[in-house]
């Protein structure tokens, strides 16, 4: 049983710096390379670019950002969980919420080096539909799709 009270909430810019720190730490651990954008640019992206196409939800424990997901009805753009809180069901909770709000079909990309993410998505019914998408990190990635039953 989870001993933490996880609160799911809409993104609020007051969490910008904490969210970006968590996102960068999680991504760097997952792909084994440093974030290429400056911290300030990353905050700007979170507050000004990402919300143009995606809704952003946070997972909080005691007002601490432990996860984030950016999504719309057909796509998940970002899903990151704090490195100290992975494997506790937070990503599952965020993903389930997005699946319920989706059109019944979701696509996403994950890096080929991120095997933990691949296992997570495949366990949740996502199937590989493409490989080798171009990205800023110059890493091979995998495109997944989930279709509601």
From TrEMBL:
<dbReference type="InterPro" id="IPR000182">
    <property type="entry name" value="GNAT_dom"/>
</dbReference>
<feature type="domain" description="N-acetyltransferase">
    <location>
        <begin position="6"/>
        <end position="149"/>
    </location>
</feature>
<dbReference type="Pfam" id="PF13508">
    <property type="entry name" value="Acetyltransf_7"/>
</dbReference>
<dbReference type="InterPro" id="IPR050276">
    <property type="entry name" value="MshD_Acetyltransferase"/>
</dbReference>
<dbReference type="InterPro" id="IPR016181">
    <property type="entry name" value="Acyl_CoA_acyltransferase"/>
</dbReference>
<protein>
    <submittedName>
        <fullName>GNAT family N-acetyltransferase</fullName>
    </submittedName>
</protein>
